[in-house]
Specification:
The protein is an all-alpha fold. The chain has one domain. The chain is built from 6 helices and no strands. The longest helix has 28 residues. It is globular, with a radius of gyration of 16 Å.
Length: about 140
């Protein structure tokens, strides 16, 4: 975390920190909406909602990884910290949902959040550098590689 303080400029804040804060706000706002069934079939409802957890936290983890990586943190440490913070944010999000009508906390959802965080972080850490050049170039432009 000391590395973040050394590089904290307005540009760094806008490019690397603000997206994490904004995406955390998006997750928080989704959790504030009362839930309604997305389908009359339970399994379809389950698939839609759990896929949303995977995607939300995959993106959150990627943004955190990007922040830490561009703070000159080693890749393994950036990945580990991104997943750990995503897990903790998932826990706090479930607590937040306990105050939302029609929703409640579920450990299973934290599991899906963490799986999404691991998959997202692993993709940019290990798989993106091995992809075709055009995709790697895209990753470089987004400061992921």
């Amino acid at each position: 975390m000391i590395l973040l303080v050394k590089k904290l400029t307005f540009k760094f804040f806008l490019i690397y920190i603000l997206p994490v804060i904004v995406w955390g706000g998006v997750i928080f706002s989704f959790s504030a909406f009362p839930t309604t069934p997305t389908s009359e079939f339970y399994w379809k409802d389950f698939i839609v909602k759990k896929t949303a957890h995977l995607v939300e936290y995959g993106i959150f983890s990627i943004l955190l990884y990007r922040l830490f990586l561009n703070s000159k943190m080693p890749k393994l440490k950036a990945f580990t910290l991104a997943v750990a913070l995503s897990f903790l944010y998932g826990m706090s999000d479930e607590y937040h949902q306990s105050f939302t009508p029609g929703r409640g906390p579920a450990i299973r959802d934290v599991g899906f959040d963490t799986i999404g965080a691991i998959l997202g972080g692993y993709f940019v850490w290990k798989l993106l550098p091995k992809t075709p050049k055009t995709l790697r170039d895209w990753g470089k432009k987004l400061a992921l590689v």
